[in-house]
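Q: I'm writing up a methods section and want to include an example of the input and output format. Could you take the sequence below and give the corresponding predicted structure tokens, formatted cleanly so I can copy it straight into the document?
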Amino acid sequence: MVLNQVQPEPTMDGDDSTIYTATTPPETVATERQDDHDPFSGAEPSFSMVPWPGSTFIIRCVSSGHVITLLDGQIVLTQPGGPGSIRWACVETKGWFGFQNVVSGKFLGHNGGKGILCCSVGRHQGWEYFCVRPKPQGGCVLLMTHWEKLWHVGTKVEDGVEKLAKIAEGGSGGIGWEFVKV
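A: Here is the clean output for your methods example:
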């Protein structure tokens, strides 16, 4: 017997009425609050976003709260609200992110040999390519290309001054960054 060929046949028992019996699920009594099992309850809200092309961000250091700033032609970490330009438009070229300063129109990149961050070119090419990777403890690591490798963005001392730069291989270390959409 094939099921799709079975024709239902009503059985006649002499009663012309139709009876529908509705079933109601048993009552459920909650004995514990839902919040007791919510892994996100009590977490502080974060305004950090994943950077995405077509959006503009303030790039903030998780540990200090300072932001990447273009100030007098130099890339520095400053407190928000001070002088300088802190807004960066996220763009994408060949799958790589880039950050274009909205005031100067120039791209965040590095200066080559020493890897110091700068903002001096109007095109998005190899020295201005970024990859953003989330960190398990929060924030993201900014990675920059170094030939066929990725180096994280951190700080190094040059001539007695701490500067943002691409630092060594790998993405497990580095400064944690937040992207605040504006």
